[in-house]
Structure formats: structure tokens, C-alpha cells
């Protein structure tokens, strides 16, 4: 096959991959994206595989992650290059080893590299992971609740290995599955949750919108307080803890809120715990969760390694904070500790842009689907929403203005197959990818004259 035709197929692959994610969000032909990529690699040399991967991954990452420039300006270019290295590596390895590896190895190699990019790798950024393209599509909930986001990715790649009529039929079935809309399940043991949206640090707006609330739980955004509200402020009106206790008592609700908790002996402006505090209706502190995954390159607190559910009279609740939900393990560990529902302080500010907001919502939906839990999050600018265990969104604010959203969410104690062991699928694919690569390189070398 001429290099020009390979590059044409790589371009088609990159366009279809990008189209599957917001702001386009057209995942109906995602298997064709992989089919085009694999066709471009048929009989290719590793050098040709490099150019095929570079073009496909460059289009995919550039057309979907351009919003990172809102955070990192020109540094978005090296970031996209780094994230593209993994699909490029896949293309080079598959070009080298495809003649001696079975077809099933395609999905193992792809998912293994996806998993490494999203979790063990130093940047651990998984937003381009294929499975997220259909987060919130309830038909995929059973597979997601079994093998998680990487199970969806493996299905996409497996379908992409098909050819001819088989590919056409399965792609049509995939598109139909993406189009099917199902209702959210009826909440079990329902809770009424008031999600309060206001700008980070605008404490007065948060108090004002929460006054007189009739809810079981009130959730405020991440960074609601840029200091520890339990500590007296420099001025009298900054003594927030008594006001929070009074709000809890007057509303009869639990409060979940984001705050900075100072670390002893450190500058609280630079080094702090980014925490979710939970207050009981009597004004007592029920527990604290400290963010496990601060946002890269930003002043976002010191990473914790503890992910526990917080016991309350409403049951055990999980309070993963914003970026924690970008990683499957935090929510999963909270469910292992008994979390019955996720109540999330979140911060996706306006300056990060609507594309970031839309893409981030897919990750929250995926965590709900993997763990079979309701998830409600209070954001600072338009992301305030709630998701059912099958990924269906049951409520969302209309804009980024300060406002509230009242939702009913369920509580459940059952564990999905994903939580019981299916989560190891990603790590197993990584080890499988290493094994396939080693075997393929060894076998290919032996077959060489």
C-alpha cells in the first residue's frame, strides 16, 4: 500500500476519533476509526507506522484537547505531543508484530497503552480514552459495570479489527446502541440533595442560596473556602464555622463543602490539603476527605493517598473531589469502603471553557456507571449536575450563574462486577501488552532472514 493511501486512512481515523468526543460528540462510527487505522497499518513498516500514528493521534488530540491552551497557553503543544506518543507507539509496535500476533492482541495492546497513559504514567491523563466517548449512554452500562472504561475501549478496538460486511453490520449496531435512550432507574432509599453553584470563594452567595433549604444534604463546590473554615479569620465576619453549624442545624441537613485545610508549619497559600468536609445536622464534623489527585501544574493542594467513605446517619457517602473522578481508583476504593452515593465538590471554572466542561462530564458519568452509584456534583460554573448509575443525567443547571439544583438520588450498597474484580482488566491489559510486544519482537526477529 502506498504511503499516501496509508496517510489518507490515518487522517480518516483521526477525524472519526476526534468526532467521537465533545465538542462534536458523534461516537456513532467509532469502530470505523479503529478499522481505518488498522487498515493503514496492514503490511506497514514501523517507520510507516510512526507516520500513520503521528497523523491520526495528532488530529485526535489536537481537535479535542485544544481547550488545554486555556490553562497552559503554548505549553498545550508539548502536552498533546506527549499524549500522542502512546497511539504512535501502538502503531509502530503493531506494524512490527502484527504478522506473528493473533487479532485479539490488537485490543490488548491498545488498552494496555491507554491504561498506562491514564494511570501509571507521570502525566496520568486519560481524557482521550476511547471508552469515555460513550459515557452516559445507558446501553453500555452493563459492560461498563463489568470491565469499566477500558472494557468499552477493548470492544471498540475489537470491532475495528473486523472487515467487510462484518464491520458494516457491527458498526451499524454500535450506532444504534449509541442512539438508544433509556430512563434513569428509580432511586432506592432516595435522598433530596441541594447542589449549590457559586464562584470559588464566594461564601456569601453560598450561604444566601442555602438559606431555608429543605434537603437531606447540601453540597457546595470545591474551594468554597480558600482557608480552613474551622479556624477564626482575621475579621469577625470571617468566622465561618459557627455560621456553617447554624446552617446545618436550621436546615436539618448534612453539609458537604470544599475547603483548604492548612498543614502545620506550612504556608497555607501554597501548601494545603484540598479537602471535602462533611457536617452533620447537629453541626458536628462527620469526616474529611483530602483530594487524592490535585490538578497537574496548578496550586491545588497536597495529594492524599486515602480514599474512604464518610459515615453519617444517612449512610456512608463518598466525596471524591473534582479531579479525583478522572481516575477510576478513587471512587472504586470509596465503594469498597461502603460508599452508597457520591456527593462531589467540583470546580470547572468559566475560563477553562465549555469544551472542558462537556468532556469532564463524561468522566463523572463513567464513574457512576462503573460503580453503580448515583453521583451529584456542585460546580462553580455550569457543571452542577446529577447522574444515575446507568449514566443518564437526571439534572443539570442551565448556565454558569450562581444558582441551585435540587435533585433526588438513590443510595445502594450492592457492588458491581467491576468493583469486585473487573477493575483489574486495565492492569492485565498492560501486562498483556508487554507480553505481546516481547513475544512479537522475539518471534519477528527469529522469522527474519
Automatic annotation (TrEMBL):
<dbReference type="GO" id="GO:0016410">
    <property type="term" value="F:N-acyltransferase activity"/>
</dbReference>
<dbReference type="InterPro" id="IPR004563">
    <property type="entry name" value="Apolipo_AcylTrfase"/>
</dbReference>
<protein>
    <submittedName>
        <fullName>Apolipoprotein N-acyltransferase</fullName>
        <ecNumber>2.3.1.-</ecNumber>
    </submittedName>
</protein>
<feature type="transmembrane region" description="Helical">
    <location>
        <begin position="417"/>
        <end position="442"/>
    </location>
</feature>
<keyword id="KW-0449">Lipoprotein</keyword>
<feature type="transmembrane region" description="Helical">
    <location>
        <begin position="139"/>
        <end position="159"/>
    </location>
</feature>
<keyword id="KW-0012">Acyltransferase</keyword>
<keyword id="KW-1133">Transmembrane helix</keyword>
<keyword id="KW-1003">Cell membrane</keyword>
<feature type="transmembrane region" description="Helical">
    <location>
        <begin position="71"/>
        <end position="95"/>
    </location>
</feature>
<feature type="domain" description="CN hydrolase">
    <location>
        <begin position="180"/>
        <end position="411"/>
    </location>
</feature>
<dbReference type="Pfam" id="PF20154">
    <property type="entry name" value="LNT_N"/>
</dbReference>
<dbReference type="InterPro" id="IPR006311">
    <property type="entry name" value="TAT_signal"/>
</dbReference>
<dbReference type="InterPro" id="IPR045378">
    <property type="entry name" value="LNT_N"/>
</dbReference>
<dbReference type="InterPro" id="IPR036526">
    <property type="entry name" value="C-N_Hydrolase_sf"/>
</dbReference>
<feature type="transmembrane region" description="Helical">
    <location>
        <begin position="107"/>
        <end position="127"/>
    </location>
</feature>
<dbReference type="GO" id="GO:0042158">
    <property type="term" value="P:lipoprotein biosynthetic process"/>
</dbReference>
<keyword id="KW-0808">Transferase</keyword>
<keyword id="KW-0472">Membrane</keyword>
<keyword id="KW-0812">Transmembrane</keyword>
<dbReference type="GO" id="GO:0005886">
    <property type="term" value="C:plasma membrane"/>
</dbReference>
<dbReference type="InterPro" id="IPR003010">
    <property type="entry name" value="C-N_Hydrolase"/>
</dbReference>
<dbReference type="Pfam" id="PF00795">
    <property type="entry name" value="CN_hydrolase"/>
</dbReference>
Amino acid at each position: 500500500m502506498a504511503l499516501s493511501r496509508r496517510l489518507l486512512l490515518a487522517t480518516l481515523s483521526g477525524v472519526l476519533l476526534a468526532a467521537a468526543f465533545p465538542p462534536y460528540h458523534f461516537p456513532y462510527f467509532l469502530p470505523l476509526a479503529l478499522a481505518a487505522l488498522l487498515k493503514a497499518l496492514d503490511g506497514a513498516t514501523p517507520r510507516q507506522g510512526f507516520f500513520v500514528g503521528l497523523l491520526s493521534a495528532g488530529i485526535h488530540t489536537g481537535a479535542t484537547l485544544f481547550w488545554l491552551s486555556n490553562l497552559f497557553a503554548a505549553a498545550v503543544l508539548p502536552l498533546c505531543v506527549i499524549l500522542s506518543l502512546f497511539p504512535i507507539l501502538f502503531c509502530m509496535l503493531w506494524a512490527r508484530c502484527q504478522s506473528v500476533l493473533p487479532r485479539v492482541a490488537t485490543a490488548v495492546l491498545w488498552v494496555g497503552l491507554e491504561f498506562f497513559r491514564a494511570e501509571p504514567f507521570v502525566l496520568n491523563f486519560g481524557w482521550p480514552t476511547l471508552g469515555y466517548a460513550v459515557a452516559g449512554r445507558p446501553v453500555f452500562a452493563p459492560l461498563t459495570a463489568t470491565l469499566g472504561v477500558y472494557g468499552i475501549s477493548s470492544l471498540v478496538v475489537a470491532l475495528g479489527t473486523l472487515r467487510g460486511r462484518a464491520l458494516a453490520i457491527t458498526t451499524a449496531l454500535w450506532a444504534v446502541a449509541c442512539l438508544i435512550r433509556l430512563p434513569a432507574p428509580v432511586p432506592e432509599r432516595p435522598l433530596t440533595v441541594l447542589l449549590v453553584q457559586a464562584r470559588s470563594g464566594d461564601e456569601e452567595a453560598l450561604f444566601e442560596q442555602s438559606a431555608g433549604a429543605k434537603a437531606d444534604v447540601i453540597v457546595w463546590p470545591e474551594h468554597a473556602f480558600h482557608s480552613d473554615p474551622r479556624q477564626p479569620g482575621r475579621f469577625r465576619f470571617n468566622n465561618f464555622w459557627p455560621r456553617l453549624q447554624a446552617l446545618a442545624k436550621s436546615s436539618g441537613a448534612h453539609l458537604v463543602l470544599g475547603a483548604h485545610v492548612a498543614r502545620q508549619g506550612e504556608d497555607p497559600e501554597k501548601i494545603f490539603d484540598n479537602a471535602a468536609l462533611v457536617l452533620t445536622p447537629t453541626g458536628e464534623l462527620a469526616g474529611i476527605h483530602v483530594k487524592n489527585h490535585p490538578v497537574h501544574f496548578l496550586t491545588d493542594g497536597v495529594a492524599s493517598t486515602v480514599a474512604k467513605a464518610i459515615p453519617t446517619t444517612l449512610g456512608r457517602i463518598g466525596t471524591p473531589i473534582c479531579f479525583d473522578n478522572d481516575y477510576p481508583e478513587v471512587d472504586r476504593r470509596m465503594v469498597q469502603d461502603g460508599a452508597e452515593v457520591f456527593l462531589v465538590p467540583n470546580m470547572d471554572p468559566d475560563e477553562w471553557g465549555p469544551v472542558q466542561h462537556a468532556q469532564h462530564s463524561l468522566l463523572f458519568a463513567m464513574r457512576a456507571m462503573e460503580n453503580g452509584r448515583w453521583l451529584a456534583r456542585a460546580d462553580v460554573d455550569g457543571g452542577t449536575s446529577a447522574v444515575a448509575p446507568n449514566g443518564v443525567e437526571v439534572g443539570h443547571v442551565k448556565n454558569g450563574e450562581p444558582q441551585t439544583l435540587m435533585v433526588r438520588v438513590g443510595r445502594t450498597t450492592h457492588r458491581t462486577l467491576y468493583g469486585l474484580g473487573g477493575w483489574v482488566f486495565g492492569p492485565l491489559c498492560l501486562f498483556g501488552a508487554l507480553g505481546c510486544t516481547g513475544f512479537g519482537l522475539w518471534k519477528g526477529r527469529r522469522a527474519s532472514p
